[in-house]
Specification:
By secondary structure, the protein is of the alpha+beta class. It is built from four helices and 15 strands. 16% of the residues lie in helices and 28% in strands. Helix 1 packs antiparallel against helix 2 (76-82).
């Protein structure tokens, strides 16, 4: 049960709107329709994919009596619409959280958003099996290029239908090595490789490794 509170919870719009894209509008399974606020983070899941984002809650001013209102799950799509005008330096504020409703203030607009009495997604349960383990290998890649590669493999495989996803295998052979993508359950070989990125302290200044052409008549050529 959601604990009633009148304390404020500042949240930012871009993260909430991104999380809402993962949530369905399923009247038969309302637990999937929510964005869960817990601690400094917000989470959403559709049953297959889970995403979390730090919503950068403001630290209460010194001497403030505000307390953490605890975890609460809000109806995702109305919540995303309510914080539409929230910007980096202009957070939306969630107040008056009760078992059935929360008020979201964004700009000059106040919107009532339904509270879902459910703990889904419970991140602790989802990651309990591997949270203490080290990854076998890691690679940093461009989100845009990874999405483009997966889309290209999906198009070439031609197996996606309304009720049939396109299965692919992802392989990382060593830290910093290219990530390999291979279509599964197709009658021909369809694959791709994505080169890693090298990011410094400024993550916006990422540098891509380049694919080298091997075995040409003139030897190795770097584009």
């Amino acid at each position: 049960m959601t604990k009633p509170t009148t304390d404020t919870v500042p949240v930012y719009g871009p993260e909430i709107r991104a999380l809402a894209k993962l949530t369905p509008e399923d009247t038969n399974r309302p637990a999937l329709n929510g964005i869960r606020l817990a601690g400094e983070y917000a989470y959403a899941a559709d049953g297959y994919v889970l995403m979390g984002a730090q919503v950068r809650r403001e630290v209460p001013a010194e001497g403030s009596k505000a307390i953490d209102p605890g975890a609460v799950t809000l109806d995702a799509h109305p919540f995303a619409a309510a914080v539409k005008s929230a910007r980096k330096n202009d957070p939306a504020v969630v107040t008056s959280i009760t078992p059935g409703m929360a008020l979201v203030h964004s700009g000059i607009t106040t919107t009532g958003v339904g509270v879902i009495d459910h703990t889904y997604p419970d991140l602790t349960t989802v990651i309990a099996g591997f949270v203490a383990k080290e990854p076998v290998a890691t690679i940093t890649v461009s989100a845009e290029l990874l999405a483009a590669l997966l889309t290209a493999v999906k198009t070439a495989a031609g197996t996606a239908t309304r009720n049939h996803d396109t299965p692919v295998t992802l392989a990382i052979y060593d830290d910093g090595s290219p990530v390999a993508v291979k279509a599964v359950n197709v009658d021909r070989d369809i694959f791709g490789f994505l080169m890693p990125m090298t990011c410094g302290e400024n993550t916006e200044a990422g540098r891509h490794d380049r694919i080298k052409t091997i075995g040409t008549a003139t030897g190795e050529v770097t584009p």
